[in-house]
Structure to design on (108 residues):
């Protein structure tokens, strides 16, 4: 059995800020796709939950992971980071054996 990813309170807070003025709030979708410079890459987008998704929820906000991506994200931590170079959602993935400098691409 895969342990689902964990979403930090900071990530849920940022998602709430994004959805604050939206007519229809969206979920944050985290997906893993083939590609990138290391073999796999994360795709992070706003979306509507679909059948088969794992839904992680707090304070009325949802983060969703499709069933194909879930094994790649087992026990990962989804966070939000603000630095001088920019702000972004980040994924700390213990399953990744290496990753590229941008943090979007990884290998297993």
């Amino acid at each position: 059995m895969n342990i689902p990813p964990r979403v930090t309170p900071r990530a849920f807070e940022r998602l709430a800020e994004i959805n604050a003025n939206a007519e229809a709030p969206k979920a944050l979708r985290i997906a893993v796709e083939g590609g990138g410079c290391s073999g796999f890459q994360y795709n992070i987008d706003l979306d509507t939950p679909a059948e088969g998704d794992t839904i992680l929820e707090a304070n009325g906000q949802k983060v969703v992971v499709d069933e194909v991506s879930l094994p790649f994200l087992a026990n990962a931590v989804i966070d939000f980071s603000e630095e001088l170079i920019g702000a972004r959602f980040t994924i700390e993935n213990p399953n990744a054996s290496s990753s590229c400098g941008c943090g979007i691409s990884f290998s297993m």
User: Anything to note?
Assistant: The two ends are 18 Å apart (CA to CA). The chain has a mean pLDDT of 86. The first strand starts at residue 6 and ends at 7. The first helix runs from residue 9 to 19.
